[in-house]
Specification:
- The protein has 130 residues and is mainly beta.
- It has one helix spanning 102-111; strands at residues 4-7, 10-13, 18-24, 33-39, 46-51, 58-60, 68-73, 78-83, 92-99, 119-120, 124-129.
- Strands 2, 4, 5, 6, 9, 10 and 11 form a seven-stranded mixed β-sheet that branches. Strands 1-3-8-7 form a four-stranded antiparallel β-sheet, with no helix packed on it.
- A hairpin with a 4-residue loop joins strand 7 and strand 8 (78-83).
């Protein structure tokens, strides 16, 4: 399993920005597509954004399009989620994930069946105050 560690969570006012990071010690980091999920209190875990192995392709859930940007630096084994124009409904624990197959990963994200995604971080809490 790939070890993933998230950081960058915190408390921010509505309209503010925050950048999350996900680092891995995996030597073959660039062979994994990466993504973010989140879970708000009392709600199901939901997909947020995904990124291909090279970083050239991205996919976002509708609610964050135009506000969030996913990126990666394979030289640093790190993935990022730049979050702008944050809303109280963005409050959640954000989880970093990794998968070896981008198409299967997106299929899982779209279907809501995350059972085949095996690599998860422990999460970082983002709280957006109104």
């Amino acid at each position: 399993q790939v070890q993933l560690v998230e950081s960058g969570g915190g408390v921010v006012q509505a309209g503010g920005s925050l950048t999350l990071s996900c680092t891995s010690s995996e030597r073959t980091f660039s062979r994994y597509c990466m993504g973010w999920f989140r879970q708000s209190p009392g709600k199901e875990r939901e997909f947020v954004a995904a990124l291909t192995m090279s970083g050239g392709g991205t996919y976002y859930t509708d609610s964050v399009k135009g506000r969030f940007t996913i990126s990666r630096d394979n030289a640093k084994n790190t993935m990022y989620l730049q979050m702008n124009s944050l809303k109280p409904e963005d409050t959640a624990v954000y989880y970093c994930t990794a998968d070896v197959n981008y198409n299967d990963y997106i299929s899982s994200a779209v279907s809501g069946d995350y059972s085949r995604i095996n690599n998860w971080g422990k999460g970082t809490l983002v709280t957006v105050s109104s």
